[in-house]
């Protein structure tokens, strides 16, 4: 594992956002949803996430997530992803979202 400096870590904008809307993403190679997320002062951003194993579209709106908001935009088929949704793979490779134990303001930075 390569070590990084504190300055390296500070460059990563890990921010909290609230999921506003969830859409099917049938064009994705692996099952995924399209998400619209409110990151407060950083705006409303879209991304896709392969989280269909543990989460339904109905369960996600209102949930706070952690995203990396300073990666370049990424084209995924006809869809433009504006941030990276964070999570961890379980023993089967299915993604579990990174979550918070209490609500915090949208746009808050991980410190």
Distance between the termini: 22 Å
Number of helices, counting only DSSP H or I runs of 4 residues or more: 1
Strand content: 35-45%
Determine Rg (CA atoms, Å). Answer: 14 Å
Q: What structural category characterises the helix and strand content? A: mainly beta
Provide keyphrases for this structure.
single chain, 111 residues, mainly beta, OB fold (Dihydrolipoamide Acetyltransferase, E2P), five-stranded antiparallel β-sheet, two-stranded antiparallel sheet, 1 helix, 9 strands
Layout of helices and strands, plus pairs?
Elements: H1 6-10, E1 14-24, E2 33-38, E3 44-49, E4 64-68, E5 74-76, E6 79-81, E7 84-85, E8 87-89, E9 95-97
Antiparallel strand pairs: 1-2, 1-4, 2-3, 4-7, 5-6, 8-9
Characterization of this structure:
The two termini are 22 Å apart. The strands form 3 sheets. Strands 3-2-1-4-7 form a 5-stranded antiparallel β-sheet, with no helix packed on it. Strands 5-6 form a two-stranded antiparallel ribbon. The chain has a two-stranded antiparallel sheet with strand order 8-9. The chain is built from 1 helix and 9 strands; from the N terminus they run H-E-E-E-E-E-E-E-E-E. The model has no long low-confidence stretch (mean pLDDT 96). It is globular and about 40 Å long. The protein has one helix at residues 6-10; strands spanning 14-24, 33-38, 44-49, 64-68, 74-76, 79-81, 84-85, 87-89, 95-97. The protein has a single domain, classed as OB fold (Dihydrolipoamide Acetyltransferase, E2P) (Beta Barrel). By secondary structure, the protein is mainly β. The longest helix has 5 residues, at 6-10. InterPro entries: CsaA, NA-bd_OB-fold, tRNA-bd_dom, Tyrosine-tRNA_ligase_regulator. Keywords: RNA-binding, tRNA-binding. Residues 8-111 form the TRNA-binding domain.
């Amino acid at each position: 594992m390569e070590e990084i400096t504190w300055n390296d870590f500070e460059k990563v904008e890990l921010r909290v956002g609230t999921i506003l809307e969830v859409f099917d993403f049938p064009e994705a190679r692996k099952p995924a949803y399209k998400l619209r997320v409110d990151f407060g002062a950083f705006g409303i951003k879209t991304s896709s996430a392969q989280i269909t194993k543990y989460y339904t579209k109905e369960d996600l709106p209102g949930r706070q997530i952690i995203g990396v908001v300073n990666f370049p935009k990424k084209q995924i088929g006809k869809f433009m992803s504006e941030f990276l949704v964070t999570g961890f793979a379980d023993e089967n490779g299915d993604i579990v979202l990174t979550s918070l134990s209490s609500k915090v303001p949208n746009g808050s930075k991980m410190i």
